[in-house]
Design a protein that fits this description.
The protein is of the alpha/beta class. The protein is built from five helices and twelve strands. It has helices at residues 2-13, 32-45, 62-68, 95-101, 162-166; strands at residues 17-20, 50-54, 74-76, 78-81, 84-87, 109-111, 116-121, 127-135, 139-141, 152-153, 171-176, 179-183. The strands form two sheets. Strands 4, 5, 6, 7, 8, 9, 10, 11 and 12 form a nine-stranded mixed sheet that branches. A three-stranded parallel sheet has the order 1-2-3, with helices on one face. The radius of gyration is 17 Å and the shape is globular.
Length: 186
């Protein structure tokens, strides 16, 4: 299902590259099923654009496996796009400042790792949890692309990443029924 959604987005936007912000797998093991799924994933996007995987905290050893399996994808720790820096987000203490120094003017760190969501309700009895984008002056946290990783409701949990802990988010944009919905921010 994720491959089909990515192919649809690729057809619509025709990007030069697709950058996956980590945690492609829960654990990278040299097993046949993982190899088949990674081959299918890379083949689906092959030739259309460059595929770049950024190493997430669950992706240890994935780079070596991609290389051993001769799959057409780059595996990196970070990737620059214009003034912006794309990372997974699980950075070691004090690494957040180092990453911010790499930003161009008006650049932002764009990261995954946190899987943010917001609660949307009618104030009475109905509510739902929706994945969301969190936006600050210098950090954007993307929701998980996978539908099964719905996320943890912001701001009711502590962030795992130093990057997110230090950001002052001023906007949240929920994904609800395939639409982007700006959320009131307290």
């Amino acid at each position: 299902e994720a491959i089909a959604r990515l192919k649809d987005l690729q057809r619509e936007y025709q990007p030069d590259s697709i950058v996956v912000l980590g945690d492609v797998v829960h654990r990278a093991l040299p097993i046949a099923q993982l190899r088949e799924e990674m081959e299918e994933f890379c083949a689906a996007l092959k030739g259309e654009c460059e595929l770049i995987f950024i190493e997430g905290n669950h992706d240890r050893s994935l780079g070596e496996l991609l290389k051993a399996w001769r799959l057409s994808a780059r595996f990196v720790s970070e990737h620059s796009v214009g003034p912006h820096l794309l990372v997974h987000g699980n950075v070691a203490k004090d690494q957040g400042r180092k990453l911010r120094k790499k930003l161009g003017p008006a650049g932002r760190i764009i990261m995954g790792h946190e899987h943010p969501a917001v609660s949307v309700g009618d104030g009475v009895a109905s509510w739902c949890k929706c994945p969301c984008f969190l936006i600050s002056k210098d950090v954007v946290v993307l929701p998980a692309f996978s539908r099964w990783a719905a996320g943890t409701v912001f701001p009711h949990y502590p962030f795992m990443s130093e990057l997110a802990q230090q950001a002052r988010f001023d906007r949240a944009i929920a994904i609800l029924a395939g639409k982007l919905l700006p959320m009131p921010f307290a």
